[in-house]
Amino acid sequence: MPETSRALHYSAGQWTEGADPVMDAWRDAKLGTSEEDLLESLGYEPIFEIGSRPFGGGFAVWRRPQGPRHVIAVNDDHLTEYLYVEATPDLMDICTRWATLARDAAITELLSHHSGMWEELVRRSVREAHREGNGQ
């Protein structure tokens, strides 16, 4: 029998290690199963996603009526990690902390992919401001 996967669980401001039902389900899933299908098969429904996944530091939050109530899918390069949160206030705490990282990662990704465009926008803005300042 395969070993049970382990994951981090967050409750009352404390992290502990516990079972990882999502990764255990992945191990037994059919090839080609999507994350959405897998999580829905475990009774989870999507709440929201922040930032860019899978490579941009973003995360997705899912919930279900029974415990663990919330699962947060976090990506780091090609690896997805699932974190479990029981109470909604704890979920809000984690999301508040992570949203800043996701925002900064998204901005960095946007700027790195479109740096030429941003440089041109800045040049145009400076020229326009200069013209307006000279009364033209």
Q: What does this 3D model show about the protein?
A:
With 136 residues, the protein is an alpha+beta fold. The chain has 4 helices and 6 strands. Strands 2-1-6-5-4-3 form a 6-stranded mixed sheet, sandwiched between helices. The longest helix is centred in the C-terminal third of the chain and has 26 residues. The chain is elongated, with a radius of gyration of 21 Å. The termini are far apart. The mean pLDDT is 83.
Describe the SSE topology.
Elements: E1 6-11, E2 14-19, H1 21-28, H2 35-41, E3 45-50, E4 59-63, E5 70-76, E6 79-85, H3 88-113, H4 115-133
Task: Give a quick summary of the entry.
By secondary structure, the protein is an alpha+beta fold. Helices cover 44% and strands 27% of the residues. It contains four helices and six strands.
User: How many H/I helices?
Assistant: 4
Report the average pLDDT across residues: 83
Task: Using the CA coordinates, give the radius of gyration.
Answer: 21 Å
Largest sheet: 6 strands, mixed
Sheet with most strands: strand arrangement: 2-1-6-5-4-3
Net shape: elongated
User: What is the number of beta strands?
Assistant: 6
Q: How do the helices and strands follow one another from N- to C-terminus?
A: EEHHEEEEHH
Low-confidence stretches: none
Separation of termini?
Answer: 78 Å
Helix/strand-derived class? alpha+beta
- The portion of residues forming beta strands comes to 25-35%
Helix share, percent: 40-55%
